[in-house]
Design a protein that fits this description.
The chain is mainly β. Helix content is 10%, strand content 15%. The protein contains three helices and eleven strands; from the N terminus they run E-E-E-E-H-E-E-H-H-E-E-E-E-E. The protein has a four-stranded mixed beta sheet with strand order 9-8-7-10. A three-stranded antiparallel beta sheet has the order 1-4-11. A two-stranded antiparallel ribbon has the order 2-3. The chain is globular and about 55 Å long.
Length: 322
């Protein structure tokens, strides 16, 4: 494992709480874990500024108060977009984690996910819950539309998958995790993840049952906090299978999947709500026995209209447009 030398930023930070991520070339992906991460391919990105930490409930509250924005989870669902769905489930709500009472079939995520009426960013567990004591926790239950609205309002953008992964590696060129290769170096938890048998036994080695305040764990080599674990993070790329046809002589610069036509969408089914975006970083619900995805190379598809209890975001600013 080696550490790349960061270059100096060309300008002052565009806003407080952003850190400079130098551009460079890196090996994106992995062939050691899940098939959707392969193949490893050479990619280059330009330097950019990135939020030091995930967008917090306090920051999202400021946005909502300033704009009156209503998130997707707070709006009724259109019946035409969900043919055959139970009408009672088309009321505003979101997907909430429920710990099982014991071992369950890990092929059936209905054993731990529940659509809860009234659940939203400001009521993370549904009616009766609130953000008391969670101002510095990452905002969750936000859809792709919601995070883009916040980014536009703040004058920022969402990172591409390549930008996010380059940043998450923190200059480590071939490490498994954002901090190195050892899971718990010196016995210390380096991220908010699930320890024990998911979804019923959480040993709480890291001290947290759910989300944690941003900055509860050490930063990576670029100074980014909670870049893996805590909550998944939206990117601006539509989900597709990485290409295995890249020639060694051709290293793509700032690659992105900008069209849903190229994405992992439900073939033959109409409706833009079926498009899926890449999310990165894993969450506090990721465990080695089910989801060892709190790694920079890990990736997963997420439907654009669906936020969950373990999905948030952070923004970037590019010195120039790409």
């Amino acid at each position: 494992m080696s550490l790349a030398s960061p270059s100096d930023p060309p300008l002052a930070a565009p806003s407080a709480g952003m850190v400079w991520v130098p551009g460079g070339e890196f090996a994106m992906g992995s062939e050691q874990f899940y098939p959707e991460e392969a193949p490893v391919r050479r990619v280059a990105v330009d330097g950019f500024w990135m939020d030091e930490h995930l967008v917090t409930n306090e920051e999202f509250t400021t946005f909502v108060n300033a704009t009156g924005y209503v998130t997707v989870a707070e709006r009724p669902l259109a019946a035409a977009d969900y043919p055959g769905a139970d009408p009672t489930l088309l009321a505003p709500g979101s997907v909430v984690f429920r710990r099982s009472n014991g071992p369950v079939d890990l092929r059936d995520n209905r054993m731990w996910w529940e659509y809860v009426l009234g659940a939203s960013w400001s009521r993370p567990e549904g009616g009766g819950s609130d953000l008391d004591g969670r101002a510095q926790h990452p905002v969750v239950h936000v859809s792709w539309e919601d995070v883009h609205a916040f980014a536009r309002w703040s004058g920022k953008q969402l990172p591409t998958e390549a930008e996010w992964e380059f940043a998450a590696r923190g200059g480590l060129t071939d490490a498994i995790f954002a901090w190195g290769d050892e899971h718990f170096p010196g016995g210390r938890a380096m991220a908010n993840t699930w320890q024990g048998e998911f979804p019923w036994q959480n040993l709480l080695v890291d001290g947290y049952e759910g989300t944690s305040p941003v900055g509860s764990f050490p930063p990576n080599g670029y100074g980014l906090l909670d870049i893996t674990g805590n909550v998944w993070e939206w990117t601006s790329d539509y989900y597709t299978t990485p290409s295995s046809n890249q020639h060694s002589c051709c290293v793509p610069s700032n690659p992105r999947v900008a069209s849903p036509d190229d994405s992992y969408a439900a073939a033959g089914e109409p409706g833009s709500h079926l498009a899926r975006m890449v999310i990165k970083g894993g969450s506090h619900l990721c465990a080695p026995n089910y989801c060892l995805r709190y790694r920079p190379a890990a990736r997963q598809p997420q439907m654009v209209d669906t936020g969950t209890a373990h999905l948030g975001f952070r923004c970037i600013t590019r010195p120039t447009s790409i």
